[in-house]
Automatic annotation (TrEMBL), chains A, B:
<feature type="DNA-binding region" description="H-T-H motif">
    <location>
        <begin position="31"/>
        <end position="50"/>
    </location>
</feature>
<protein>
    <submittedName>
        <fullName>Transcriptional regulator</fullName>
    </submittedName>
</protein>
<dbReference type="InterPro" id="IPR036271">
    <property type="entry name" value="Tet_transcr_reg_TetR-rel_C_sf"/>
</dbReference>
<dbReference type="Pfam" id="PF13977">
    <property type="entry name" value="TetR_C_6"/>
</dbReference>
<dbReference type="InterPro" id="IPR009057">
    <property type="entry name" value="Homeodomain-like_sf"/>
</dbReference>
<dbReference type="InterPro" id="IPR001647">
    <property type="entry name" value="HTH_TetR"/>
</dbReference>
<dbReference type="InterPro" id="IPR039538">
    <property type="entry name" value="BetI_C"/>
</dbReference>
<dbReference type="GO" id="GO:0003677">
    <property type="term" value="F:DNA binding"/>
</dbReference>
<dbReference type="Pfam" id="PF00440">
    <property type="entry name" value="TetR_N"/>
</dbReference>
<keyword id="KW-0238">DNA-binding</keyword>
<keyword id="KW-0678">Repressor</keyword>
<keyword id="KW-0804">Transcription</keyword>
<feature type="domain" description="HTH tetR-type">
    <location>
        <begin position="8"/>
        <end position="68"/>
    </location>
</feature>
<keyword id="KW-0805">Transcription regulation</keyword>
Length: 199, 199
DNA sequence: GCTTTTACCATGCACTCGCATGAGAAAGGT
DNA sequence: ACCTTTCTCATGCGAGTGCATGGTAAAAGC
C-alpha cells in the first residue's frame, strides 16, 4: 500500500480555501487555480479530490453548514436558562464579530448561489430544517420554563427568528446596521415574546 | 446634429437583459457578450452605454431598486386601511408569485454581490433607508388609526419586518416554504402587533 | 451635398477559465 | 530491490472573458 493521506483533511483545506476566496473576492472569483493557490497545493491535487468546480462549491457549502451547525450546537450545550440559550443561539447567527461576519458573508453568497444551482439548493433544504427545529425546541423549552409566552407557536416563531437573522445579514454587512444595533433589535423582538406581555 | 436615441431606453434594455441572465444563470454567468446577445444588440453597443462590467452591474442594481420601489409605491397609493397597506407592502416584498420571485432572485444575487463590491454596497445603503422609512411610516399610520399597538417602536418594527421579508426569500426560493406558508407567517407576525393583545 | 456629431459594429488582444491527459514521485507490501 | 497503489504535478486545449481600437452608418445643420 502506498502513500496514505487523510482525505478529509485535504478536503477541509480545499473547502476553507474556497471560503476565504468567497469572503475576500466573492463567489465569481472562485476558480480551480485560485483555490489551489490559496490552499497551497497544485491544481492537479485539487482536481484529485474534486472532479468538478460545482462539486468543489458543494463541498465548501457542506463544510460551512457543519461549521455553523457546530457553533450553534456548542451554544446549546452551555449551561444557561432556556431563554438565554435561545438568545445566544440567535446571536450566533448574526454578524456580530469578525468570525460571525466571515461565516455570514459566505453563507449569503451560497444563499444566492443555491437559487441557481440545484445541488446546492438540495443541501440548503437539508440543513435548514435542522436549525429551525433546534430553534423551535429552544422556544418550547423556554415556554415550559415560563420564560416565553405559552400561546406562541414555537415553529412559526422559530421561522421568524431565523428569517430575522438572515434578513439582517446583508444590511449589517453593507454597513447599514452596526453589530450593536442588530443585537439590540434581536433583544427588542425577544422581549415581546415574554409572558405577561400578552393579553 | 446626428442620430438621436433615447439613452434611458437603451440602458433599460441593458439592465433588463442583465436581470434575465442573473435570474436564469446566476450572477457569475453575466458577461458583456451574453448581455449583448440577450438585449439583442451588439457588444459594441453595450459598451457605448456602459464602459465597464462593474458599471453594467451597478446599472442593473439601480434599475431593480427603482423597480421594486415603484411597485411598493404603487401599493402605498392604493385606497385601503393603514394596516392593509402595510400588509400589502410587505407582501410585495415576498416571492409570492412569479414576478415577485423574479425580483427576489435578482435582489438576492445583488445582496451577495454588494457585500464584495463597494459601489453596489453604497447603492444598497442608499435605497434601504427609503424602504425602511416607508414601512415605519405605514406602521405609525396604523398606530394612529388604532390598528397597531401604540407602544410599538415603529422604526424597530419596520426593521424587523424588512428583515423578515429578506430572510424568508432564500428559504422560499429554494423550496422550503410555499408562497402560502410564508404569507401565513407574515400574517401571524402582523397579528401580534395589533392592539389589545398587549398587557 | 458636405460636414459634424452621434451611435454602432467587428475585430483583436492578452488573459483566464474548466477540464483532460500523461507522466512521475512517494511509500508500504513482499 | 521491486512492484503496486496512491497521490501529485505540469502542461495543453478550446472556449470564453473584459476591454481597447479603428472604422462605419446614420441623421441633422449649414
Amino acid at each position: 500500500m502506498p502513500k496514505i493521506v487523510d482525505h478529509d483533511d485535504r478536503r477541509r483545506h480545499i473547502a476553507e480555501a474556497v471560503h476565504r476566496i468567497i469572503h475576500d473576492k466573492g463567489m465569481e472569483n472562485v476558480s480551480l487555480r485560485e483555490v489551489a493557490a490559496e490552499a497551497g497545493m497544485s491544481m492537479g491535487a485539487v482536481q484529485y479530490y474534486v472532479t468538478t468546480k460545482d462539486q468543489m462549491l458543494l463541498l465548501a457549502l457542506e463544510h460551512i453548514a457543519v461549521w455553523i451547525g457546530a457553533r450553534v450546537a456548542a451554544v446549546a450545550a452551555r449551561q444557561s436558562t432556556p431563554l438565554d440559550l435561545l438568545r445566544e443561539t440567535m446571536r450566533e447567527l448574526l454578524p456580530l464579530d469578525d468570525e460571525r461576519s466571515y461565516l455570514n458573508r459566505i453563507g449569503l453568497a451560497f444563499q444566492a448561489s443555491s437559487v441557481v444551482d440545484d445541488d446546492q439548493a438540495a443541501a440548503m433544504r437539508l440543513g435548514l430544517p435542522l436549525l429551525l427545529s433546534l430553534l423551535a425546541e429552544q422556544i418550547r423549552a423556554a415556554q415550559a420554563a415560563g420564560q416565553l409566552a405559552a400561546q406562541l407557536d414555537a415553529d412559526k416563531e422559530a421561522s421568524i427568528l431565523y428569517a430575522f437573522a438572515q434578513g439582517t445579514v446583508n444590511a449589517t454587512l453593507v454597513g447599514h446596521y452596526t453589530p450593536e444595533e442588530v443585537a439590540a433589535l434581536l433583544d427588542y423582538h425577544l422581549a415581546r415574546l415574554r409572558p405577561g406581555r400578552w393579553s
